[in-house]
Design goal:
Shape: globular
Mean pLDDT: 94
Distance between the termini: 39 Å
Order of helices and strands: HHEEEHEHEHHHEEHEEH
Radius of gyration: 19 Å
Strand order of the largest sheet: 7-1-8-9
Number of domains: 2
Structural class: alpha/beta
Number of helices: 9
CATH class of the largest domain: Alpha Beta
CATH topology of the largest domain: Ribulose 1,5 Bisphosphate Carboxylase/Oxygenase
């Protein structure tokens, strides 16, 4: 196992590894121990008491973070004709036309989120983009609210740019979701985390038995993890 650097070890000394912190205190510690020269991202990592091998226990949804992610989100819209014009007027940075589809197949992925009209999904599927975009979380999906009717394009694009994020459980029952930047006011990170916790509670599968949220850790980019009391986190307002 690789050894951590001096800055990491110094930051980690401020954290009690055996303690479950209240959410606000944990967020403050994450900000205090963020030591990168750039503005690190604060992330929430969670272990759920579900069996992700079963379709009925999947956890997947989106949440609009009230204070955004603190970064410019580049949105690609797969649309054509009037829908493409509407998407551009709504603020889409790239229109996913045939040329763009070819660029993606050739390795170009300079965007953060993608939205599509239903009629474009067939073209996306036939082109094989699912194999490229799917593993990166960039494939438009009705469950994620990124396959929408033409008239809903402006809303979807505005929400993506404002800080709507998708969360999806991995094979091990884990969730890994960004909630903002280390430079945010702690109160804003708290509000974002509270919104995410509410969305995760709502997304609990009916088939899940026993303890749903087992472990929560907050961390910043390259920073040490801070354990959070799951009960306190679920009580966030």
């Amino acid at each position: 196992m690789a050894k951590h650097g001096k800055k990491y070890r110094k930051a980690a000394e401020k954290i009690d590894g055996d303690k479950l912190y209240e959410p606000e205190e944990a967020l403050r510690l994450v900000q205090e121990t963020s030591y990168t020269k750039f503005d690190g991202t604060v992330e929430l990592h969670m272990r759920l008491g579900i069996d992700a091998r079963h379709a009925e226990q999947q956890v997947r949804d989106t949440v609009l973070l009230p204070n955004g992610l603190g970064k410019t989100v580049l949105v690609l819209a797969f649309a054509e004709g009037d829908a493409a014009r509407m998407a551009k007027e709504a603020g889409a940075d790239i229109i996913g036309d045939d040329e763009t589809i070819k660029k993606i197949k050739d390795g170009w992925l300079e965007f953060d989120a993608a939205v599509s009209t239903p009629n474009m999904m067939g073209k996306i599927g036939k082109s094989g983009l699912g194999r490229i975009l799917g593993p990166r979380g960039l494939m438009p999906n009705p469950k994620a609210g990124t396959v929408v009717r033409e008239e809903d394009l402006p809303r979807a694009i505005n929400e993506l740019k404002a800080g709507r994020v998708e969360f999806r459980v991995d094979k091990g029952g884990g969730l890994h979701v960004p909630i903002g930047k280390a430079s945010f006011e702690t109160a804003k990170l708290y509000e974002n985390m509270a919104a995410l916790m509410e969305a995760i509670r709502r997304a609990r599968p009916a088939a899940a038995k026993g303890t749903y949220i087992r472990k929560i850790t907050l961390t910043s980019t390259m920073g040490p993890g801070v354990k959070v009391d799951p009960n306190a986190a679920q009580a966030m307002q």
